[in-house]
Design goal:
Length: 104
């Protein structure tokens, strides 16, 4: 699957590293505002979400799109993180989103 990171905005607030936009060439689709997270040395992404309150008044988030199969989401996440670093790595930021450890 070929992807291109078409934009990245560093945030660095809590576990949120930033927001990325990814173009998936095979699908002909661009996904904006993918949230990039990092905690305890682990990185993951979340598709754009909508906030809502549950019946107890607690804030919850539901993604606008999702993969039904978690294996597909894991594969997409791995590839998206790699392409974010590859195509958006030249954008100025105080430190690299991804350290040199791991598969990236």
């Amino acid at each position: 699957m070929s992807m291109v990171c078409t934009g990245y905005k560093q945030v660095g607030k809590g576990v949120v590293l930033g927001y990325a936009s990814i173009f998936v060439e095979k699908w002909g689709v661009e996904i904006f505002n993918i949230t990039v997270f990092q905690k305890d040395g682990k990185r993951w992404i979340s598709f754009p979400t909508r906030e809502y309150e549950d019946e107890d008044g607690k804030k919850k988030y539901i993604p606008h799109i999702r993969f039904k199969n978690s294996v597909h989401m894991d594969l997409f996440t791995t590839k998206a993180l790699a392409y974010i670093e590859k195509h958006c790595g030249e954008h100025p930021r105080s430190d690299s989103i991804f350290d040199q450890q791991g598969p990236f």
